[in-house]
């Protein structure tokens, strides 16, 4: 015999009306075989999408009955109630549902409930259904509290738990580096639990909370105005609106009045695809908003079914339902002479969100809820006695079906949906899902379009769930530019900061702190990168070096000239009397001193350092004038040569790259391990010069013909003057200027020797033919 099974789809028109709309829904029963729905609607505006959800339920039942595959010889029926998005209507409908047939004394076998819209209403409804273990499937209730099977054992949903949405939003904030976010949550289970989880996860990721406020469930102008002030004053660029769509409208009007257009709104699934908020009036406010919503589905044949509906078949109306209800997108006039519907209007001739199937989300969820129950009934119907899920392998029977038996089958149902995916409920009664990330973008008409810019797949691995394109950032302050670092503002959250420039030698490139440049590198003027330091040394093209080299070259020419004259007149009495061999050594000493100046020019090297140390001194050569043998040479020169050799080995003279002398520059200089080495060399220089000066002064009383002591005296005095000027000048200069001081001292001493010792010897006047005696020598 054919068996007819009836079940109720609760709150089919779940959010059918708003803005003080009154809806009266009356049901006439013809149980147990057929139910027909009679609606008397008095309204200002109808919500077409919610009506589409209800009609999707009716279409799913019609499709199952006509295909006669899942439930052969079984016909499904339905009854639709309206919660009016309120707890009182929900309670009234629940009580009416639990007493079916009370008015007509005919038995109606109710199997399952589908609804309601929103977590608060679903919780209210579930309190009643749980008492009788009646399976309840909702398509738009995300509160994670409903996953607790100890409290809601008969509750299931084709919509993912909001714990996934809160996690998705927290991951989104982390992905884009949004450090400063405010939250507004509706004052119900959906808003409070969802935003609490979001805040917990976001703060773990380092997000700073600008504010945490509650949207009133019952309209309060004072509270709404206060929320408007908070949003207007906050520095946060991104604000999360964790709320249902109807609870959002009073706040939106306040935002429009305050003209707050510089915020990016994070949207939750109840309003992220709202066609009302997407209209041109709200475009300037919500442009750029972003949020997650359940992935779109496909219901083949639904659009044709919706367009085939006619008022006289579906509704007993007293107003122009199709004109002002379904054609909500058409431009209306305020004329009182509206033409009433005849009942023969064609919906394919108008543009309405009722027949728009491009965004089937909640509609697809209701469709899947009906199919889940149908597949559960199919599993129940094909149960083989002895292999059933109940005691002793028994099976349930459709003519005597208990709600808890159907609940067991729905929990275990598994089937392949029309998208080719395995569909089932987990242990908490939740279904897996994939979120789409929608971004609100303006179109040519000035209204909003919902563009998919990413996905969040709950089935993917943890680090690969979020796939998203780049969108704007949100921080208390804009990120500090390159070359600056952050400094926390006193009394502000940690993510509020100011930007100050990095110090010299430091750089930053998008980081919060300045980083010290590596050795031998220096930051550029913008402090954004590090560049190799310029090297500072006595270069050949340096003006000071050029002047000193010219002076040294002139001195070299004079030295060679004196040497040439001495060589030419080597047999003359003047040259002979001065011991030309010693004079030659003295000239060689001056020549080497002048040539050593060349080693000061250019970049220092190990060779130049050692050569400077090993070069012999000058004043000790003057001492040779008083001795006829070369013993004095060994006495004066060899100790200094030995000392310089030890200095070169033990003192470890080397080239250093000095970066402390001039910030941002490398001063290349020669240095040793200790200042004691050059100090001892200077002391030895002073000692030899003092001996020379003493001997010269002691010989000042010689005959007039012996002018040599006078010249040596002048030479030593000038040496001391140069020395006294050199010491303070050298100690007060650095880098190439100290080298220039040293070069100048050497050149000055060389000119001193040339001018006071050698130039007088070049004045040779030819003899008159008479013999003159100079000491024991005769000059002709």
UniProtKB/TrEMBL annotation:
Residues annotated as signal peptide: 1-18
Keyword Iron: no
Mode of membrane association: Multi-pass membrane protein
Full protein name: Vomeronasal 2, receptor 1
Matches recorded under SUPFAM superfamilies: Periplasmic binding protein-like I
Transmembrane feature ranges: 544-566, 586-615, 627-656, 676-697, 709-731, 743-764
Keywords per UniProt: Cell membrane, G-protein coupled receptor, Glycoprotein, Membrane, Receptor, Signal, Transducer, Transmembrane, Transmembrane helix
Top-rank lineage group of the source organism: Eukaryota
All copies of domain G-protein coupled receptors family 3 profile, residue ranges: 600-764
Similarity annotation: Belongs to the G-protein coupled receptor 3 family. TAS1R subfamily.
GO MF, any single term: G protein-coupled receptor activity
PANTHER family: CALCIUM-SENSING RECEPTOR-RELATED, G-PROTEIN COUPLED RECEPTORS FAMILY 3 PROFILE DOMAIN-CONTAINING PROTEIN
GO (cellular component) term, any one: plasma membrane
Subcellular location: Cell membrane
BP-aspect Gene Ontology terms: sensory perception of taste
